[in-house]
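We now fix the convention by which a protein and its fold are recorded. Think of the row as the fold of the chain written in a discrete alphabet. Here is one such record, which you should read through line by line.
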Amino acid sequence: MFDQEDKDHDNILVKLEKMTYLEIKRGGKSDKFLDMMTQIALLKSVKYLNSVDVNIIRYYYTHLEKMVLGEPINKTIYQVVTDLGMPNTQQYYEVVENSLAKLGSMNLSYDIEGNSIHGNLLGCMIYEEDGVKKATVYLGSILQAVVLKKSTFEYDEKIFNSLSYDSQQLAIWFQKRRYRAAINNDDYTEAIGLGIFSTAIYWNTKRKDRQRSRVLASLEELQNKNLIIKNYSYDKKLFQFNVEYIPLSPRELSKLELNNSHNNMLKEPEYKVSK
């Protein structure tokens, strides 16, 4: 049985590597083949993991709120054991601790045709405080980016893929800021200086007019496709964008484990994008 699983796993890897190679050779978007490379790196790592390791990865990467806020996940070992449905015994405490230590020491690494990915599954600190064993876990940035991209959008993937490269990058960046506003119960409006966008887009020019034009083009595209952006304006004197986000739907709030009585909830029963 395990031999067949290994063969299936290897076949998936071979197919994915071939697809990635072809995507690079035909000059596809880097965003697409880098996602594929991340999947390959993860599959190569998963081969050396047991079921407990995999369940712990899944468990920690469902903490979407922490990803949005960029905060570590602090839990007692008892909480992790209980949440995973394991027996409350010293043996399983040690199983969880050993798994976290193993995952913290594993790297994600893959290279193909001069392109490479290097990262980690997660980082962790296991310590005792007031007689209680605890773990502080830091999620790996590469996997975080993939999870945020794949999991935070309730929109049609075809619509997202139809966006320009700048708009795709900004969609993920804006979505994170929009989710942060909901978590903090802030207004869905904010002023963002032009310089701040350098954390989302790589500028190959220092000319502010060209930078401004690229951001404005993406904002217009997102607004026209009814994605994330409800309204926006630009203050020329301050080099500042005033952005208003579309309120979160009940479905999105549930992903962040926020209830439907939240002040920043979209009033309609469900938000649907126009095609």
Observations:
- The longest strand covers residues 122-129.
